[in-house]
TrEMBL record:
It catalyses: L-histidinol + 2 NAD(+) + H2O = L-histidine + 2 NADH + 3 H(+). The active site is at 322 (proton acceptor), 323 (proton acceptor). NAD(+) binds at residues 125, 186, 209. This is Histidinol dehydrogenase. SUPFAM superfamilies: ALDH-like (SSF53720). InterPro entries: Ald_DH/histidinol_DH, Histidinol_DH_CS, Histidinol_DH_monofunct, Hstdl_DH. GO terms for biological process: L-histidine biosynthetic process. Zn(2+) binds at residues 254, 257, 356, 415. CDD domains: Histidinol_dh. The keyword Transmembrane helix does not apply. It comes from Lactiplantibacillus fabifermentans DSM 21115. Keywords: Amino-acid biosynthesis, Histidine biosynthesis, Metal-binding, NAD, Oxidoreductase, Zinc.
């Protein structure tokens, strides 16, 4: 793994260059065609695309409950126990995110407030392909259910040998209301616009490939989306007290996700940097997903050596990583130096996969530097806020002059007259 010794300004420039996301115009155009076809031809378009892309003929999109129940009943006992443990911890954490509205009646004759309303129906996209992610189903559906969402539906690409049983079991554990066998950009279009078989949703959540991500961008506005997720990334801040074998393993835990994943270590120790680099190289040789991880390490990963702890945090705040490990002595004392990160892992025994599976905080996190302005998925993503106002006549009279003044400054006479109509000063 390459080690970089440069000044802070040069390192920041390197990070910003590696974060830039390029738009593939061919993908944009292809997705536009797919969405337009689904809008026009509905289920028929979905069937055609599933046959073309997944080589599966679908007669019935909705998966029958008996198949889901059988997957749960026959699931390996250890897998089931792990999913149930994850559910308990995810639920206990996200229950604490629940918020309530408020009523403000402090001013005489004025009632103001805000009420929180859950979304009615949410669509969860679950990728198919080489990997299955039952943990992501729990992370997506459970906060929605805690928020009070009426219906959570799931879409996932059909598989020739059937959908992974752990995926189906996780959906049942998480309380998913219906599962539909459809994937890709066509699934996003179906969720956004609805078809005869698949109902329209209010919000789409969940990761996917570049076609799914592009489709989510294009349907935003028709429906809400959680985020446009990029490749996974991990940033580690460590000093000479950290264990290089463990740091290398943590870096590779994210590198194995995707060839474009970003594993980054920032340290003030040249000795540690070399030891971690050597450990990454040796561990790559025996990692099952070595081809993917090697491409990630070689093309997107690096170890930066800086002068002091504050430089480590300043540089990592520029990265704004999806996952941030603090492998320093007394790591909690550095929390105030963290400005941009999706989720933070403190100390030797908070390895990143802990957060992926069972700790409880959500693992659907902002990527590609978007932790500068975005947050992890949570209960708050599944509610909308509605404000309300009530004034008595004396209260409105007290503020009428200010309202009509501002209305006329903006050239909106009708606004001013709507207020004056209540006080016998309205003119036909």
């Amino acid at each position: 793994m390459k080690i970089i010794n440069e000044d802070l300004a040069t390192l920041k420039q390197l990070i910003q260059t590696k974060t830039q996301q390029l738009t593939d115009e061919k993908v944009v155009t292809a997705v536009q065609v797919i969405i337009a076809n689904v809008i026009k031809n509905g289920d028929q378009a979905l069937q055609d695309y599933e046959k073309q892309f997944d080589q599966v003929t679908i007669d019935q999109f909705k998966l029958d409950q008996a198949t889901i129940d059988a997957a749960y009943d026959n699931l390996d006992a250890d897998v089931k126990a792990a999913l149930l443990l994850a559910k308990r911890n995810i639920t206990s954490f996200h229950e604490k995110e629940k918020a309530t509205g408020f009523i403000d009646a402090e001013q005489p004759g004025v009632l103001r407030g805000q009420k929180l309303l859950p979304l009615n129906r949410v669509g969860l996209y679950v990728p198919g392909g080489t990997a299955a992610y039952p943990s992501t189903i729990l992370m997506s559906a459970l906060p929605a259910k805690i928020a009070g969402v009426n219906e959570v539906i799931m879409v996932t690409p059909p598989q020739k040998d059937g959908i992974n049983p752990a995926v189906l079991a996780a959906a049942k554990i998480a309380g998913v209301d219906a599962i539909y066998q459809v994937g890709g950009a066509q699934a996003i279009a179906a969720l956004a616009y609805g078809t005869a078989s698949i109902p329209q949703v209010d919000k789409i959540i969940g990761p996917g490939n570049v076609f799914v991500a592009t489709a989510k961008k294009q349907v935003f506005g028709q429906v809400a989306i959680d985020m446009v997720a990029g490749p996974s990334e991990i940033g580690i801040i460590a000093d000479d007290s950290a264990n290089p074998r463990e740091l290398a393993a943590d870096l590779l835990s994210q590198a194995e996700h995707d060839k474009l994943a970003r594993p980054i270590l920032i340290t003030d120790s040249s000795r540690l940097a070399q030891a971690v680099s050597d450990n990454v190289d040796s561990q790559l040789k025996v990692l099952p997903r070595t081809e993917i991880a090697t491409a990630s390490v070689n093309n997107k990963g690096f170890i930066a050596v800086v002068d002091q702890v504050t430089d480590m945090f300043e540089l990592m705040n520029t990265v704004a990583p999806e996952h941030l490990e603090i492998q320093l002595e007394n790591p909690t004392q550095y929390l105030n130096l963290i400005k941009n990160a999706g989720s933070v892992f403190l100390g030797r025994y908070a390895s990143e996969p802990l957060g992926d599976y069972v700790a409880g905080p959500n693992h659907i996190l902002p990527t590609s530097g978007t932790a500068r302005f975005s947050s992890p998925l949570g209960v708050y993503d599944f509610v909308k806020r509605t404000s309300f106002i009530q004034y008595t006549a004396p209260a409105l009279a007290k503020e009428a002059k200010a309202i009509t003044t501002l209305a006329r400054v903006e050239g909106l006479e009708g606004h001013a007259r709507a207020i004056e109509a209540r006080f016998d000063t309205y003119y036909d």
